[in-house]
Specification:
Chain lengths: ~525, ~325
């Protein structure tokens, strides 16, 4: 009996201890919308899909592996064109002051989620919404139909086999929305716009309030199917200035902060009250040679230029060593990464020789476009440009640095007006297709995101083969072959895979750093 | 009165044209920003353009903008898809609250320093008051703000680093002014929290108008002290305090008020930097973000509202001065 009592006391003390009343996350910007179908930036995803919603399948916390979400199981037909999902039972949607769900999650919610994004004429599609992400992933051209088999079974039919499809379903825009909520918004006259300000999902936290440019507040979802989160009140505080964010972190006004500056990481790690978690980011930065233009159509020129650039110094100066040197288009944490490709060799003499062989004994004049904004994959494009300029001058190549404001830079480069250009990419779904096909596939030349404007038959065939095969082993072989071709052909000079750092108080437990850069708090608490 | 209204009408037409065109003169459009590094087919791009109403000719866009502006509707923000009017209603009280707080302390201190400097003309105090306030004016705000944050918030820990109110408080929206809204719901803790949060940003922002007010107050007092009626007052044997308060200040008011009115315009521009540093959810940050994202409706409306505010303030200071000094009223006729 005594033992029992002490056990009860012990257990209750434990649970009391584990409760965290207020948890503050300081983030770098304001969410643009709380409807995950309409957002494409990390801040908005953190504030909507990652906290309030779930998807049919999800990425395993801290990884890119696909695990079950709202679908408890799924199967793929032999022709790889039909995906059948069995939904979990007894999943309830959140409620707010004007909506109380009368039923649990069922097939209608899933159908509504996808059909409203596929078809602009769907009665529950938001008028004039662009559904950018859904369309950017070309799902409108891939999915032929979404059908209900019974109340808890949904079938998605594809027009052609596509292996990365399952990973697409784990992405933020595929968050499952409540069809009942959408209907009730129309009935009450509030309109579908309310989905953007008052999200209703099934996720670990319930949306409570948003003070524009100031705070987003959530409370724990008592009925969350994976168990109630330990944080009672989750508060996102918007602090745009990175220096100020760092000071707030140091003074204890934030429990976790996003986007620390690379140069601050060292001082954070030395602070005993803080800890830094870091992981290889799912990103790459590169200099693309416009292979559609002379002299970059010449392989020897690309090789010579690559050899003349001192990659190591770029990592030191630009990334403060918070990055891994890149040699392939995909980061080393991604499956199918080819370890055996040759690393770029820094050799000025050999570069000079190659350039002479290519017919440019005295070098040539060219342009390098430098990234006008700071992106997670490349913090300072201008400085990198200056370093590259100095390096290439040593082999007689005179580089003029050119830059535009960000929208113009994007527009002109998509049309291929550049010669050499700095760019980068952050992965969407952890699939190699999302890097190689988007950035180097033949179809991406026309579509604009192949900035090297490089269309290599053999490389492209390998990608297409990998896309249609769903056996990971076969796909790996295709992608490794593609990486071998890439490393010989050098359409890019790959620079780095920037590390992702998160700074948090030393007493934060359960935080898993996510390769996609999302912040998830469902299993986080304070010691 | 009618001529005044016509003038006002044309100034509004002018500012509508300016606020409409300025953002469109910047290269790049919102569509590319939305697409980013990804690819997009030309059809897709034109579809997005159409949805945003950017496919129409610039003249039609301007006419639509004018039509909407008359009814107070500035459309929807491209990035947040919310009504611009709605966002403005939430954000402008924050900026005004901050600016008023900054103006309050800088006017009071500026007046005192200016008058004292005028009395002790060419003394060490005079030089240091004038030069110090000038240094304050010339200091880049982002640097000055960081120093203040570092010293008072991080080192001494007297004030919070950034924000408008402690995150634990939920202030229901009534007027948008936290000093009013917290009192309306009788949440005094929240009220004091709001005071604690406004001190540092208001201090930083107030250093801009301080120099202006010190100088104007000083020169106004010096000018008027030279006038004959002051000599008479002195000869009558009035005490210096009485002379300053009753005779000099009374006549110096118009100049000082004009300076304060102008300073308010300065504050609205200075607020952009201060708001970013202190994570103050106001109009400055909103407009800057709008410019970056080429969010036409936000920038249009933001500029329009700010310019309207400045025109109104100038108008009101003019009227206030006329009330104080009826003589000016006659001259304007």
């Amino acid at each position: 009996m005594k033992f029992l009592i002490s056990l009860v006391v012990f257990l209750s003390a434990l649970t009391l201890h584990a409760k965290t009343a207020n948890f503050i996350f300081c983030m770098e910007g304001s969410p643009s919308s709380f409807n995950p179908q309409l957002v494409s930036d990390g801040v908005s995803m953190n504030s909507s899909s990652q906290t309030v919603f779930n998807r049919l399948v999800e990425f395993k916390p801290g990884g890119t592996e696909i695990i079950s979400g709202l679908a408890e199981s799924w199967s793929i037909s032999k022709d790889k064109k039909t995906y059948t999902f069995k939904l979990r039972k007894n999943i309830s949607f959140h409620s707010n002051e004007f909506f109380k769900p009368s039923r649990n999650l069922n097939a209608d919610d899933v159908i509504y989620t996808f059909k409203s994004q596929m078809d602009t004429k769907h009665p529950l599609a938001i008028p004039a919404a662009n559904y950018e992400y859904f369309k950017a992933m070309e799902l409108d051209q891939l999915i032929s139909d979404v059908k209900k088999i019974d109340l808890m079974t949904v079938v998605i039919e594809l027009k052609h086999p596509e292996a990365p499809f399952l990973a697409d379903l784990a992405m933020d825009f595929a968050s499952i929305q409540s069809e009942e909520y959408a209907q009730s918004l129309i009935k009450s006259g509030k309109g579908l716009k309310t989905l953007e300000t008052n999200p209703i999902g099934t996720g670990p936290f319930v949306f409570k309030s948003y003070q524009k440019d100031s705070t987003v507040k959530f409370t724990a979802n008592e009925k969350y199917f994976k168990g109630k989160p330990q944080i009672e009140n989750l508060i996102f505080v918007i602090v745009t200035d990175s220096t100020v964010r760092a000071q707030k972190m140091k003074s204890g006004e934030c429990h976790v902060m996003s986007e620390p500056q690379p140069q601050d990481i060292e001082s954070f790690s030395k602070n005993v009250k803080l800890k830094v978690l870091s992981t290889e980011g799912l990103n790459v930065s590169y200099i693309a040679f416009n292979t559609a233009k002379k002299p970059f159509d010449n392989l020897k020129v690309r090789q010579a230029l690559s050899m003349a650039m001192n990659q190591k110094s770029y990592l030191d100066v630009i990334y403060k060593n918070q990055a891994t040197a890149a040699k392939n288009p995909i980061p080393p944490t991604m499956w199918s990464y080819q370890k055996n490709t040759i690393e770029n060799k820094f050799d000025v003499a050999a570069a000079k020789k190659l350039l002479a062989e290519a017919g440019f004994k005295d070098g040539f004049e060219t342009e390098l476009w430098t990234l006008p904004v700071s992106r997670p994959y490349l913090p300072n494009g201008k400085k990198l440009g200056e370093m590259v300029q100095a390096d290439l001058l040593k082999i007689g190549v005179k580089v003029k640095l050119v830059t535009f404001d960000w929208p113009t830079y994007l527009e002109k480069s998509k049309k291929g007006e550049h010669q050499m250009i700095q760019f980068g990419w952050t992965g969407d779904n952890g699939d190699p297709d999302n890097f190689m096909n988007v950035l180097l596939g033949c179809s991406a030349v026309q579509a604009g995101s192949n900035y090297a404007r490089w269309c290599h038959k053999e490389f492209d065939t390998a990608l297409q083969n990998a896309k249609e095969d769903s056996v990971i082993k076969n796909r790996t072989a295709f992608y490794q072959k593609a990486q071998n071709i890439f490393s010989i052909e050098k359409p890019w000079f790959p620079i780095a895979h920037a590390r992702q750092n998160k700074v948090m108080s030393a007493n934060v437990v359960g935080y898993k750093i996510d390769p996609f850069g999302h912040d998830q708090f469902e299993s986080v608490s304070l010691k | 009165m009618t001529s005044k209204l016509i003038k006002l009408f044309f100034s509004f037409l002018f500012i509508s044209l300016v606020s409409f065109s300025v953002i469109r003169l910047i290269p790049g459009d919102p569509v590319m920003n939305m697409i980013g590094e990804r690819s997009a087919s030309p059809e897709r791009i034109s579809e997005i353009r159409k949805n945003l109403g950017l496919d129409q000719s610039i003249v039609i866009q301007y006419i639509t903008f004018l039509k909407n502006a008359v009814s107070g509707n500035f459309g929807e923000s491209i990035s947040s898809k919310q009504s611009v009017m709605q966002e403005f209603k939430i954000l402008w009280p924050a900026t005004v609250e901050l600016s008023v707080a900054a103006l309050l302390w800088s006017s009071v201190l500026g007046l005192i320093l200016g008058i004292l400097a005028a009395i002790k003309r060419n003394s060490f105090f005079d030089y240091s008051a004038v030069s110090l306030s000038t240094v304050g004016f010339a200091m880049p705000l982002f640097w000055w703000g960081l120093i203040i944050i570092f010293f008072f918030a991080v080192r001494l820990g007297w004030f919070p680093i950034s924000g408008r109110i402690d995150v634990v408080y939920d202030v229901p929206y009534a007027t948008g002014f936290y000093f009013i809204d917290t009192l309306l719901v009788k949440n005094f803790d929240a009220f004091f929290s709001a005071i604690k949060f406004i001190i540092l940003p208001a201090f930083v922002l107030g250093t801009i108008p301080l120099a202006l007010i010190v100088r104007v107050a000083r020169s106004a007092v010096i000018d008027i002290a030279k006038e004959d009626f002051i000599r008479t007052a002195k000869a009558k044997g009035l005490s210096p305090a009485k002379i300053i308060l009753k005779h000099i200040l009374k006549n110096a008011w118009p100049q000082i008020l004009t300076a304060i009115g102008l300073a308010f315009g300065h504050l609205l521009t200075g607020a952009i930097m201060t708001e970013t540093l202190f994570s103050w959810p106001g109009m400055g940050r909103w407009i800057v973000h709008g410019i970056m994202a080429r969010d036409y409706p936000v920038v249009q409306a933001g500029l329009f509202y700010s310019m309207t505010m400045i025109i109104l303030i100038n108008f009101l200071t003019d009227e206030a001065i006329k009330l104080l000094n009826p003589k000016l009223k006659d001259e304007s006729r």
